[in-house]
Amino acid sequence: MAKVALVGATGAVGREMRRLLDTRDFPLDGEPVFLASERSAGTTLPWKDGEVEVRAISPEAFDGVDIALFSAGGARSREWGPIAAERGAVVVDNSSAFRMDEQVPLVVSEVNPDAARQRPKGIIANPNCTTMVLMVAAKPLHEAFALTDMVATSYQAAGGAGQSGIAELLAQTTELAENPELLRTDGAAAEAGVAAETFSKAIAFNVLAHCGSFTDARYTDEEWKLVNESRKILDLPALRVSPTCVRVPVVVGHAINARMSFADPVSREAALDALQQAPGLVIEDGVDAEGETLAYPTPLGSAGRDEVLVGRIREDLFDPHSLNLWVVGDNLLKGAALNAVQIAELVLDE
């Protein structure tokens, strides 16, 4: 049994964490502690057959807490994560605040669960949602063929930017759908005619050539996360990653097209065998019962599913050491809330 606090309980990922703590029958010691900003303090959130009052975050709020799940942004995590740990809680943080800290393990529950045991700061980091989804498929292939290089292009849902991203996509979609002729004849006017606040340009009926903010070498912070976090999770500091992160008009569900190269030669059949043994992974690759339609996973089809889905598994046309595949997963579930709760379950198993 564990006393659990949830920081950021009112947010999109926090809502999923609340649901998972209930539906996975997490062995809670009493009611969870729901923490949020001062403006949310005093409100209530549903819990089982009743409600739990939201409290403002404070040092005393962590007294007696065994596990603190954080999903309230990097600034909040950097301020309050160490305080929660000092008060005796194991912190599972969903932000980018501690991911590259050498004293903080970066854990995907199916990929490197043993890393969660080594936490000198009392903090465990949850990876970026795109990296996490991809790692579930990359790990079994690495174990079988020794991964050396990866070209990864992500197609990330609007929901990856939080509830504001979902709201912006839905509002723009409704507005632009009322004038389909403009979409066909003057796309620039359609793009400029809607309010873009969460994203740099209109996301509805559009594809944006970047996610996140541009940083070093004209790559975005989302792209650097794919590079650095993949290396840390797989314990491959020399892994060569070429990333491109794209924003697409999907509510929930990230997709990644990956070309993986290995030290050993790889075949489709051998890759399928390795992937079939992987926990938390479902293969959707083939034809339907009539032998006609190619089966493959989609971001929309992944929404609401715990598993990571993989398809379009095929040998590279020219390199016998390379493989191409398509990986999708729910960025709010496995990409965030589910993995955090699974990490908490790993801590309890200790």
From TrEMBL:
Give the pathway annotation: Amino-acid biosynthesis; L-threonine biosynthesis; L-threonine from L-aspartate: step 2/5; Amino-acid biosynthesis; L-methionine biosynthesis via de novo pathway; L-homoserine from L-aspartate: step 2/3; Amino-acid biosynthesis; L-lysine biosynthesis via DAP pathway; (S)-tetrahydrodipicolinate from L-aspartate: step 2/4
Record-listed NADP(+) binding positions: 10-13, 39-40, 331
Q: Name one GO biological process term.
A: threonine biosynthetic process
Q: Which reaction does it catalyse?
A: L-aspartate 4-semialdehyde + phosphate + NADP(+) = 4-phospho-L-aspartate + NADPH + H(+)
Q: Name one Pfam family in it.
A: Semialdhyde_dh
Q: What class of enzyme is it?
A: oxidoreductase
Task: Give GO terms: molecular function aspect only.
Answer: aspartate-semialdehyde dehydrogenase activity; NAD binding; NADP binding; protein dimerization activity
Residues at which phosphate binds: 99
Q: Tell me yes or no: is NADP among this UniProt entry's keywords.
A: yes
* Listed EC numbers: 1.2.1.11
UniProtKB keywords:
Amino-acid biosynthesis, Diaminopimelate biosynthesis, Lysine biosynthesis, Methionine biosynthesis, NADP, Oxidoreductase, Threonine biosynthesis
Q: Where is the active site?
A: 129 (acyl-thioester intermediate), 254 (proton acceptor)
UniProt subunit comment:
Homodimer.
Name of the molecule in the record: Aspartate-semialdehyde dehydrogenase
